[in-house]
Amino acid sequence: MFSKAFIGIDPGKTGAAALITDEGTHEILDYPGDPSLIVAKFTEWKLHHHIVMVALEKVSARPGQGVVSMFSFGRNLGTWEGIISAFGIPFMMPTPRQWQQGLIDQKAGGDPKARSLNTARRLFPDAELSRKKDHGRADALLMAFWARRQWTN
């Protein structure tokens, strides 16, 4: 019998995908830049888990963001969405505000990335989140946690 699993995805350039199971295990895939590597990891995850839901962060342009970086960001988002759809996995696209509400400890740091990292370190103490640039990993883990919470509520 497969364990139930939930995936969270931060589609940014330094983003990641994280899978968490009902048994408390987790895995992280840093965004590899090559969609075939994402497909390989999702294939492995589907072979070993019953993936119930994916939370893919719904992102939008921010003021001051360049056209090239925004195009790249949109391309990443589309890549993730296409791969999830091709695997037939149900997914939601929560905004950062939706998935962070009630989950991120607002006193856990000065900026949103620090708060996300500190919250994920508390919830996933054995995850590799030691570097400041691991905020994409932290967000992915927290979105997977959020997706599991949505499923069980």
Describe it for me?
This protein is of the alpha/beta class and 153 residues long. It has a single domain, classed as Nucleotidyltransferase, domain 5 (2-Layer Sandwich), CATH 3.30.420.10. The chain has helices at 35-48, 67-86, 96-100, 112-123, 135-152, and strands spanning 3-10, 16-21, 26-30, 49-56, 91-92. A five-stranded mixed sheet has the order 3-2-1-4-5. The radius of gyration is 15 Å and the shape is globular. The mean pLDDT is 90.
Give the SSE layout.
Blueprint: E1 3-10, E2 16-21, E3 26-30, H1 35-48, E4 49-56, H2 67-86, E5 91-92, H3 96-100, H4 112-123, H5 135-152
Parallel strand pairs: 1-4, 4-5
Antiparallel strand pairs: 1-2, 2-3
Spell out the key features of this protein.
5-stranded mixed β-sheet; 153 residues; 19% strand; globular; 5 strands; alpha/beta; single chain; 5 helices; Nucleotidyltransferase, domain 5
What would a concise description of this structure say?
Helices cover 45% and strands 19% of the residues. The protein is of the alpha/beta class and 153 residues long.
- Beta percentage is 15-25%
Which structural class best describes the helix and strand composition? alpha/beta
H/E series: EEEHEHEHHH
CATH topology: Nucleotidyltransferase, domain 5
Overall spatial form? globular
